[in-house]
What does this fold into?
Amino acid sequence: MKIPFRKTLLRLIPVFMYALLPSGCASLGPRAEPLRVGITADYPPLVFRQGGQFVGAEVELARALGEELGRPIQFVNVRWRDQIPALLGGKTDIIMSAMSITEARRVRVAFSEPYLKNELRVIFRKRDEARFTTTEAFMASDMRVGVVAGTTADSFVQRHGPRLRRTALETRKDAAFFLLRSRRIDAYVDDTLALAWILAENEASIAYLREPLAEEYIAWAVRPSDQELLQSVNAVLATWEEDGTLDDVIYRWMPFLEQLK
It folds into this structure.
């Protein structure tokens, strides 16, 4: 399966617009079993809350998936660190919340085909740009670095930055506050899609290192025992790639990606 957006995300786009198009599930029979979708609604533009509702590219794709499978969608909002336990514990059926594929996660869950390429990057106060010149220099430094606990950024910092002073954040919403106002951290590491939103909201105050720290791929996760669902999801993804549905949703929520095609 060809992964959309193979072009490397060489830069963050400081300002972008996205469309908020309502979508809903088709009317399903009373016996259709709900598809319980695990989300962590703190990752605009993929999945977040707006006006008291869950919105974002992942939310729209989840609703479309439910229509394809003939199952109503039930969103289950859980903390990021609880996503895999909730799935394995039977509280959810699929994780659709910008989860990156890692070998450690493969041991516990079964991933769908990847549908989006992403990268890990670092942001920092614009006045500190002279301190951040290369990824090697950053990783070898003793900077106070914020990460969301349990993410691939957290694992990367712990594995490759032995001198970095890690600060675990509960949510991405805290990153700009800790960086600009409380100054508890000197830098923040996350993936490009999440950082683009933070940068857009703080364009005058935050800069970023243009060289990525690492690249990764985003997919959906199900229980290893649920192979029938996995095959169905992969079949839907293949159809969406072929007919352009996937590109349509992703580019509508993240139009800045079209400039990087």
Remarks:
- The two ends are 17 Å apart (CA to CA).
- The longest strand covers residues 116-125.
